[in-house]
């Protein structure tokens, strides 16, 4: 699915769900710290989205979209414990793009693929203002963490590691 189709699907979901959101246009940027500076908010209010490969056992591999605050890292050990997995690591770029239906730097905290489960840290859904790139490098979205949780229906678990330096 091309990047613009994912964007349209997101906007359609938001419009049909009657949630308050705001679109923010900015210079093209996908790195969390840089795009937070462009949007003018602390990184803690951003949703950082990372596709992970979770090997539950020798035959079972799952893919998880980990959503953590922008100033934090994904705690791979916490994700491994959550799934009682043998291994957790970052998905290869091709698989991540296919499952997230967008390119790196534009991954939404939503999943439109049944093979990609969303797990969000409690700090993400607690944000009164939650920012993320809207499946485009040049446009972001602002909505409440409460509305995000209601629409995305993530599994909410502690998966954020210490703040990044």
TrEMBL record:
Domain YbaK/aminoacyl-tRNA synthetase-associated: 26-151
Highest classification ranks of the organism: Bacteria, Bacillati, Actinomycetota, Actinomycetes, Kitasatosporales
Keywords: Aminoacyl-tRNA synthetase, Ligase
Database matches in Gene3D superfamilies: YbaK/aminoacyl-tRNA synthetase-associated domain (3.90.960.10)
InterPro entries the UniProt entry points to: YbaK/aa-tRNA-synt-asso_dom_sf (IPR036754), YbaK/aa-tRNA-synth-assoc-dom (IPR007214)
Record's signal peptide: none
Coiled-coil annotated spans: none
Protein name according to UniProt: YbaK/prolyl-tRNA synthetase associated domain-containing protein
Superkingdom to which the source organism belongs: Bacteria
Alphabetized GO MF terms: aminoacyl-tRNA deacylase activity; aminoacyl-tRNA ligase activity
């Amino acid at each position: 699915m091309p990047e613009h189709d994912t964007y349209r699907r997101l906007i359609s979901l938001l419009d049909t769900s009657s949630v308050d959101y705001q679109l923010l246009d900015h210079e093209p940027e996908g790195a969390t710290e840089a795009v937070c500076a462009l949007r003018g908010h602390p990184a803690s209010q951003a949703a950082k989205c990372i596709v992970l490969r979770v090997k539950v056992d020798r035959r079972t591999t799952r893919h998880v979209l980990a959503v953590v605050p922008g100033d934090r890292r994904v705690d791979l050990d916490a994700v491994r414990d959550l799934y009682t997995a043998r291994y957790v690591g970052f998905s290869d770029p091709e698989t991540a793009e296919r499952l997230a239906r967008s390119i790196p730097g534009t991954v939404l905290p939503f999943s439109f693929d049944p093979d990609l489960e969303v797990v969000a840290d409690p700090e993400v859904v607690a944000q009164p203002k939650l920012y993320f790139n809207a499946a485009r490098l040049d446009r972001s979205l602002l909505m409440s963490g409460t509305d995000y949780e209601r629409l995305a229906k993530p599994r909410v678990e502690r998966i954020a590691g210490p703040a990044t330096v």
